[in-house]
TrEMBL record, chain B:
The keyword Metal-binding does not apply. This is Unannotated protein. One of its GO terms (cellular component) is plasma membrane. The chain crosses the membrane at residues 6-30, 42-64, 70-90, 97-119, 147-170, 200-226, 232-258, 279-300. It is found in: Cell membrane. The lineage of its organism: unclassified sequences, metagenomes, ecological metagenomes.
């Protein structure tokens, strides 16, 4: 390995409305290494790589490639500087052939393509790097693993010296992952640079030479893979417990009884792949069960399945012994399941409708006479809820989308709680809220539990789970891989299991 | 006698189908880049009135006058579609609404009639109409003569364009990149293709072709300017783009099929066949509705190979 610096990013700051995605991030990558970028979702990995590939422009900071300062205004500039990215969501034209995808955007001035020459060149590259794929096949005919190879071939064909792979193993089978790692080693042995973005600790340990850890948009540190361990990386990634206050509960959970019982649940995701695999869990009245895990490991699907928004392929869900019909939201509601979905403004509420209409969305049947809505009744309910939940809104008729994030969430919580549920499913309920609103939402969840509701709290924020939950389950690749009592929870251990290490 | 009618219908189907094909080919270029142009009807009318005015005011040989008129019609069509491109690509407005606005703004009761009024071209026979040519003196050859060797210069040009467009779309680098922009602008952008530029260029060029289609109405079919004279040809052209699976060759066939329906009425009437003229006039539009209904479902759209990003403004994913 040479000690020449291939990429140097200094003091990178990138702000989006309301978030600082990168806060003075520094990154230094040597030629000929696989450099892992490790961090939880929202740590700023993707933003950083999008800056390096010219998709975003940093607000502050400099990027140097091979010792020279560069300014990228578009992906083309980055490509010309030898930087290619394999996106997590493939950038392929599905109706085109492999060869056509590979030559796309090539700055060759010839009018016609030499299809044969392209195919030969693609074949050469695929032989050399072990990326088996038929150049004349159309993308839609290929498996996800093959499509990823096309993505890699694309950047190699362009002569990229620096390859960025964003969560490349997320879509691969274990065998394909091993193959990919071999390919990456061949590439770095030729002096190329591979930037490997991941949150999976064992893979980072297996393939990288050095690791830079990001947390909350900042660089935590860079370590040599050989001198570190998954445990160290996990604690770097999730951070030490800074403010770790367990919430004091008024009424303890009634562990003798079970209100929500889920057994052997399986379900598909939107693309028809298995998202949840034999998940079994139970929640007692008054208990808060936290589901920890890195986003995309089946948590969203789990919340949707339990609340009746997504059909189950096998298994059962019961509330107080009564089973909930698969994929029937109304059945779930009737059995007493309340749902605070991840995407509160689109799934949870009708953004363009007024506050009062959103309150009535769930119980409009009791708010109507002869199927005509009773406006006064709806107004009264709304006035009561606005006051009781301290919702800051200009009025009952204000569209929900005009409220601040915290107040939007309060509207949603007010509606769900007012139905006196037995079970509450809350998915990332505090994401994107300011500190004050976070406190309010957490208090409400605890109050609900104190009043005997069984709460299933799904969150990527480990601190939140550690401070609220009675019991913690960890999800990884659609399964529950660990279960601990919150009182005995060890932060680093949970971090490890979130990264797929079960020891 | 019967075969005679048949030949006349085919020959006039090609004649009536020519402006439809120009507009449809324009639509193919525009839609292949991912922009839906529902402003074709208005664009054709602007092209038609501009062509008529030019023909009335530019002297010189017939060839010169007609060529300049066609170019001016194309230019006018290009200008109208530049407005559409600005609305759809830069301002990222809803493309259906933008296209309809263009048709209403430029159409029968809008700009085209206003221009006809202030330019005083309404119902003024153009001095140099586009005439059918006698190619190689073969127009009297039985059967193939009227069909192949007695058409207008624009018709012959359209055949050349159909071939060139097929090569351009499916066999050149730029065509490949254009299709990528219409299928997956994210991919195209990541590969360093300028999505905005490709969309502008092809939307404007598509509008120019629609303008030429309009000129064919005011210089060849009638040949004088009458307000709203395209009578919905723009809508037929939009249906033809879909009907032709976004391929120039199939759109050409489709245009002649619709051309046949349009010419059937006048041909049969001339032969004293007893059939309601209104019914025959309505036939192409009835077909248009059937085609549009058949293909308007999302499922059919995907199955027929519509550009996947058709009608969707492109924005880089920003948070």
């Amino acid at each position: 390995m040479t000690s020449e610096i291939a990429v140097k990013m200094t003091g990178i700051v990138k702000k989006f409305p309301g978030v600082i995605a990168n806060d003075h991030v520094n990154l230094e990558i040597m030629a000929g290494e696989v450099h892992a970028l490790l961090g939880e979702n929202g740590a700023g990995k993707s933003t950083l790589s999008n800056i390096l590939t010219g998709l975003y422009r940093q607000d502050v900071g400099t990027v140097e490639i091979g010792g020279k300062k560069v300014e990228f205004n578009s992906p083309r500039d980055a490509l010309n500087a030898g930087i290619g990215m394999v996106h997590q969501h493939f950038r392929l034209v599905s109706t085109f052939t492999v060869a056509e995808n590979v030559v796309l955007g090539e700055s060759d001035s010839s009018l016609f393509m030499d299809q044969k020459a392209v195919a030969t060149r693609v074949q050469e590259l695929s032989d050399r790097y072990g990326l088996a794929v038929d150049p004349s096949a159309r993308i839609w005919q290929l498996s996800v693993g093959e499509q990823q190879r096309v993505e890699i071939l694309k950047v190699l064909y362009r002569g990229a010296r620096i390859l960025i792979l964003d969560e490349p193993t997320a879509v691969l089978t274990p065998i394909e992952t091993t193959e990919l790692f071999k390919t990456l080693r061949v590439m770095v042995s030729e002096g190329r640079v591979v930037i490997f973005i991941s949150h999976k600790l064992d893979e980072v340990m297996a393939v990288s030479d050095r690791v830079t850890v990001l947390r909350g948009g900042r660089t935590v540190g860079t370590v040599n893979t050989r001198e570190t361990s998954t445990t160290d990386l996990a604690s770097l990634m999730v951070g030490r417990s800074v403010e770790f206050n367990r919430v004091v509960r008024q009424t303890p959970a009634d562990r003798e009884r079970i209100v929500l019982d889920v057994s052997d649940l399986c379900a598909f995701d939107d693309r028809g792949r298995v998202a949840i695999e034999s998940v079994s869990l139970s929640v007692s009245p008054g208990e808060i069960v936290g589901i920890a895990g890195v986003a995309g490991n089946g948590q969203r699907e789990l919340a949707e399945v339990i609340s009746g928004m997504r059909p189950i392929t096998s298994g059962s869900i019961t509330v107080d012994g009564e089973s909930v019909q698969s994929g029937r939201a109304r059945s779930a509601i009737a059995k007493g399941i309340a749902h605070v979905p991840e995407d509160r403004l689109h799934t949870g509420l009708a953004a363009g409708h007024s506050v009062e209409d959103n309150f009535a969305l769930k119980n409009y049947r009791s708010m109507s006479r002869f199927r005509i809505l009773q406006r006064q009744q709806i107004r009264n309910q709304s006035t009561h809820l606005i006051e009781h939940y301290d919702i800051k809104t200009p009025g009952s008729e204000t569209p929900v989308r005009l409220l601040s994030g915290g107040n939007v969430q309060k509207v949603l919580l007010a509606r769900e709680f007012s139905a006196s549920p037995k079970v509450l499913i809350a998915a990332s309920p505090t994401r994107g809220l300011d500190v004050g609103a976070i406190e309010t939402v957490r208090e409400r969840l605890v109050q609900a539990a104190d009043s005997g509701v069984g709460v299933l709290l799904i969150s990527e924020d480990l601190d939140e789970i550690l401070s609220l939950a009675d019991r913690i389950l960890v999800m990884y690749e659609g399964r529950i891989v660990a279960e601990v009592e919150a009182a005995q929870a060890d932060r680093a251990r949970i971090g490890l299991t979130m990264g797929g290490i079960t020891a | 006698m019967n075969s005679n009618i048949f030949i006349i219908v085919i020959a006039s189907a090609i004649f009536y189908g020519t402006p439809l094909f120009f507009a449809a080919l324009g639509g193919i270029f525009t839609e292949r880049s991912g922009v839906l142009n529902l402003g074709v009807e208005g664009t054709m009318l602007i092209g038609g009135v501009t062509g008529a005015w030019t023909c009335l005011h530019v002297g010189g040989s017939a060839w010169f006058t007609i060529t300049v008129s066609i170019l001016m019609g194309a230019l006018a069509g290009g200008l109208v579609s530049t407005l559409l491109a600005f609305l759809c690509i830069t301002l990222k407005t809803n493309q259906t609404v933008a296209g309809l606005s263009i048709t209403i703004f430029a159409g029968t009761v809008g700009l085209s009639s206003y221009l006809a009024n202030i330019w005083k071209v309404s119902k003024q026979p153009v001095p140099r109409p586009i005439r059918n040519l006698d190619v190689f003196g073969l127009s009297d050859t039985p059967i193939v003569g009227p069909i192949l060797f007695h058409q207008t210069a624009l018709t012959y040009l359209s055949w050349v364009l159909a071939i060139l467009a097929t090569i351009y779309l499916f066999h050149t680098r730029i065509g490949l990149q254009l299709r990528a922009v219409g299928e997956s602008p994210q991919t195209a952008d990541a590969m360093g293709i300028n999505v905005v530029k490709y969309r502008y260029v092809h939307t404007i060029f598509g509008g120019m072709l629609a303008g030429v289609g309009g000129v064919f109405y005011s210089l060849a079919i009638v040949p004088l300017w009458v307000d709203g004279m395209t009578k919905g040809a723009g809508w037929i052209a939009i249906a033809l783009v879909i009907f032709g699976f976004w391929r120039p060759s199939l759109a050409l066939l489709g245009a002649y099929l619709f051309g046949a329906l349009q010419s059937l009425g006048s041909t049969l009437k001339a032969r004293n066949v007893q059939i309601s003229g209104d019914l025959l006039d309505a036939l192409p539009f009835f077909m248009t509705i059937v085609v549009l209904v058949l293909v308007s479902s999302r499922f059919a759209h995907r199955k027929l190979g519509a550009p996947a990003a058709l009608g969707v403004p492109y924005e880089r994913e920003e948070r």
